[in-house]
Each structure stands twice: as structure tokens, then as C-alpha cells.
Amino acid sequence: MTATRHVFGHAVLVCRAEEWDYSVTAHPDAAPADVAQALACAEKLGLEPVPDADPEALPDGSVRMWLHPIDPFANDPFETEILCTSSN
User: Fold this and answer.
1) Distance between CA 21 and CA 19 in Å, rounded?
2) Which of 27, 30, 38, 88 is the one with CA 20 to 30 A from 56?
3) Is residue 85 part of a domain?
4) Which H or E run contains 39?
5) Which residue pairs from 9-16 have beta carbons closer than 8 angstroms and sit at least 24 positions apart in sequence?
6) Closest CA to 64 of 12, 4, 3, 5
7) How many separate domains does the chain show?
8) Is there a domain that residue 86 lies in?
9) pLDDT tens for residues 29-52?
10) Containing domain of residue 54, as a range?
11) pLDDT in tens, 51-87
């Protein structure tokens, strides 16, 4: 399985489409702007935070927010030509 990653400072947007696994993980040093950029990219890709889902605290101090497609009947958002500016 292949994961697609977009890195914004200390925030990472990850997609494992085969598993319907979409998330933004903010590492302890993430600035609010890093998270905002990751979420803006997710929105461009047709993803949004899962409503009423609490962020998940990870053992390393990171926080993961789960995402889902805005339109569940759309194609895999990471197969589109939309580009997000990231540091990796």
C-alpha cells in the first residue's frame, strides 16, 4: 500500500486511499500556520475534518485529525492534478 504525504512544516497530510485513511498529524513543534496550510490543502483535495470527531493524541505528543471526503462519491482526491505547496 502506498501513502501520499504532503508536509507543511511540522504538520503532515497523509492519504492511504486503499484504506480510506485520510488524516492531518500535527507534531509537537507544529505552528498553527502549519496546521492551517495542511487543512487548506486537504480542502483543495476535497477533504474535510470528520465532524464531531475528537483529535487523537499519539504517544509521541503529536495530534491526529481524521479527514473524510467532502463528496464521498467523488474520485480519490489524491488522483487529481491539484497541487498543494509543501516542503516535501
Assistant:
1) 5
2) 88
3) no
4) helix 32-44
5) 9/33, 9/34, 9/37, 9/87, 10/34, 11/35, 11/37, 11/38, 12/38, 13/38, 13/41, 13/42, 13/84, 13/86, 15/45, 15/76, 15/77, 15/78
6) 12
7) 1
8) no
9) 999 999 999 999 999 988 999 988
10) 4-79
11) 888 999 999 999 999 998 887 766 555 555 555 655 5
